[in-house]
């Protein structure tokens, strides 16, 4: 271990070239794996037709049909698009497609959805109990 690190004239510890090469190789491998994941996702997207994803009757909003021409107002346009029902429907369809493409058992999908719902409802109950207890005791409301 001591041989792998060198000390320069200023007394700073410097790693050997072999360790630096290994780190570069690991970083390159991570980048390649990210690129392959992106490539797989793009291939999946290219194979799908709009009818498969969105159904027969769909109305496209202006962002989908014409794109964004005024980039000064891009954030506003993207915000409107995210709030549009077509975007929400397509996100739900895409998530369900991804879940089924991984060939996960439907029972497991339902169970995981139930667990997340239970956790969410517990959070709501905690908030309701906190608000009602504050009302009954008359203490100031301090949310953690």
Report on the structure:
- It is built from six helices and two strands.
- The protein is mainly alpha-helical.
- The chain folds into three domains: 47 residues; 42 residues, no CATH class; 32 residues.
- It has a two-stranded antiparallel sheet with strand order 1-2.
- The protein is extended and about 70 Å long.
Q: Could you give the distance between the termini?
A: 47 Å
Biggest sheet, strands in spatial order?
A: 1-2
DSSP E strands, number:
2
Order of helices and strands: EEHHHHHH
| Number of helical elements | 6
* Domain count: 3
- The overall pLDDT, averaged over residues, is 75
Given as residue ranges, the uncertain stretches (5+ residues, pLDDT < 50) are: none
Q: From the alpha-carbon coordinates, what is the Rg to the nearest angstrom?
A: 26 Å
Helix content: 55-70%
Structural class: mainly alpha
Strand portion? under 5%
Biggest sheet descriptor: 2 strands, antiparallel
Name the overall outline: extended
Region (Disordered): 1-24
Biased composition (Basic and acidic residues): 1-18
